[in-house]
Fold:
Amino acid sequence: MSAADTDVQKSPGHDAESVRGAGALLQAWRLLRRDQLGMFGLVLVVLMVGSAIFADLIVPYEPSQILVGPRMGPPSWEHWLGTDHLGRDLLSRVVKGGQVAFMVALASLGAALTFGILLGLLAGFGPQWLDNVFLLLFDGVRAFPVIIFGLATVTLMGPSLWTVVFVVAVTSIPIYARIVRTQTQALKNNEFIVAERAMGAGTGRILGVHVLPNVVGPLLILASMDVPLVITTEAGLSFLGMGVRPPTPSWGTLLNDGYNYIRNSPWPVIAGGIPIVITTLGFTFLGEALRDIFDPKLRKDL
Structure:
């Protein structure tokens, strides 16, 4: 039989898998459309993420530019959210600060997921002594409050954007690793895993082909719900002067500047707080809706 004939025979199976995948996504979209809070969260997430991606095209003024005009000015047609104590446009700084917030969230959660999955698989599938060592390591890291650990790390490494990414990633790795460890231990004694071992499959193939696909889905949903927590951590460190350094716009530095001049105008505090609230609501509503859709035990229509 020629290679062409083999491809022809295989193509219907691949097409069927594609149809099944597209059907599952379509079904998930239909379920999401029924959830009003989920759709509301999706709209907020698209709004915030889109404004961060296209921030350079959206901002009406240079975020760090000191403008000639009223300082601590109220909202107006020229400055929709007002101006800060240096006369900078608050709307431009809020939109540009979204880039910093989501960049920290993407980098830190990406690193935390990568190392958390790797360590969780090793702890759950490895020998008992290795599991005990990893558990001790996870508990040791989680014993430190995030802010206290962040302040100590910033004191040693110096305040910067990548220091914040490091702090968030290190403190998040044990959370994801524990979840992966628990699910891996629940799967490793299943019949299909035992059958794979009996057929001579290696550990790498079992983890990569059979265990990993079963743990990644719930983990991604959990990570999406952790985005507001990461953004709040970055804002908190920047508010304390331990995160993003001026003149780089950040929602935390906006809150810090607004707090120092709150007797003159409340608008900088409002401008720095609103995007954090919107982002938290959006990712929380969307994450809960996705969890209900993809977790059969929580799906409302069953």
About this structure: The longest helix spans residues 203-239.
